[in-house]
């Protein structure tokens, strides 16, 4: 377990991106992701987060029908334009994509992480697959994931993970200063979750929360957009509108973390809160 009281030495600028994606068109969606990386870099971001299944759209049945065509992996050449954008702009990216386990063949809803040099760093598999996702053929992941970037620890989540308070708390107990979520939150109940649950996760864990959300039709849903960043006290820091393409860019402050954790020291005794679930860690270049 990391030191829960350790703070980063300097501020960090992150971006949450949203744009329409084309159903099962990996090449087009990679190009869109690359353009968002460049735009985010122009706004000073060291890391851009993009929505759940952004590289295919939320097209569960199409992915399952032809996983060889629609799943992606660490060495997939279709990621090359995105890797080039990261390397050229020195901006890392976390982007949603379907993956397939090479040994078991299990399908997963994942977040792929490319570093500022464009190289693949790690992947996080959604731990809380919905009943519909499991019925379609997707398996839940088994481990959380924490990234380290410029002294900031960043816990990853995907969509329905946000509905389980222990998921964000496990990241916090692993020393995360921010919780980064790619999602498909639709109009209606999804918009309500966005407005209520995510600021609560920030306040509960005295850490920043970032949401990158779909902003158009994809599969059976229409994303409500509103990609955003919340402060460690649950107040809104940055927000995109309902439509895209758009970015929510925010400067994360060690001082704001310190103030929140002094005023509301909820992580002082981990034994009273939750057990740290299995996690992997990766350092971004």
From TrEMBL:
Gene3D superfamilies: Carbon-nitrogen hydrolase. One of its GO terms (molecular function) is hydrolase activity. This is Carbon-nitrogen hydrolase family protein. InterPro entries: C-N_Hydrolase, C-N_Hydrolase_sf. Keywords: Hydrolase. It comes from Kitasatospora sp. CMC57. Belongs to the carbon-nitrogen hydrolase superfamily. NIT1/NIT2 family. The keyword Lyase does not apply. The keyword Hydrolase applies. Coiled coil: none annotated. Residues 12-254 form the CN hydrolase domain. SUPFAM superfamilies: Carbon-nitrogen hydrolase (SSF56317). PANTHER family: DEAMINATED GLUTATHIONE AMIDASE, NITRILASE-RELATED.
